[in-house]
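Annex B. Sample input.
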Amino acid sequence: MLVAGRPFRSIWPAEDGRSVEIIDQTRLPFELVITRLQTLEDVAHAIRDMQVRGAPLIGVAAAYGLWLGLRERADERHLARIAETLIACRPTAVNLRWAVERVRARLEVLPSSEWLEAAFTEACRLADEDVATNAAIGRHGLALIEDLYRQKGAPLNILTHCNAGWLATVDWGTALAPIYAAFRAAIPLHVWVDETRPRNQGASLTAWELAQEGVPHHLVADNAGGHLMQHGQVDLCLVGSDRTTAEGDVCNKIGTYLKALAAKDNNVPFYAALPGSTVDWNLRDGIAEIPIEERGEREVLRIRGQAGDGRVVAVRIAPEETPACNPAFDVTPARLVSGLITERGICAASREGLRGLYPENAK
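Annex B, continued. Sample output.
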């Protein structure tokens, strides 16, 4: 995707052949900073502190992290430690474990002398596959948007939550991929961007992405979505997913569930866009079984912004004696989801729907 007219990915191998580079998402939207990751510890820090975030990107970053960890030593015990370190970084997004286990499976059939090269090759393959997967999500979602536009005969208003754009993946994004595809196909549209408290990924990342591409958009407070739907100003809700159960429950950034409830009450289509790697085929009940990450209270108690003199500062927004609770995700039951947009097509948010697209995972 574009940054000041120049195409970028969110992660890529550095020219030195010994490290990877990322766009540091904690510095956006006020400055574009490229950070080099040289060790396993660098990657683990980048994932934990959300320099890289979004389920697909976390998975690819972890794959590169495994490669960097093997640069220190390539044996079974060290490989197990690397995998454990990476998987522990973020508990909710299933892509993290999926990517690490995929690279490990590739290495297990090879002598350890070939692990380093094979790990790098597999990480690069994962990155390229992610780009192709998200482009396919964009094409399938484009068909949905085209159909809605034909029905309405006027510009579409799409509401999204958090950041499920190219910054959450290697390129294109999940929920934003259909929007980018539609915009490039000259379908008139406008995006309502939820600010997405407490980390404001909508305000700092989605709005920045859309501005770079020239997509018309407005930032709105998280609680404005229901009002907009009541007044006919939302034609489609389109969100991503950090983990989707085999039954179609969708776990996404906190606040997604409330948007789904409002969409249901106002007959607004609510779709989640995700790659097959985000489906956890071992889970049935998302509310009961998906581990919800509890992040530090500082994210809720303080807010980051740009002061009048250009400095980026963080200020406290609550009394000193007030504590905070910070669940990072919530679960939207399948009954509230109109459908799932995947790289293989669009299906119902159900076991039967997912089985139809991914028969190899049917149980």
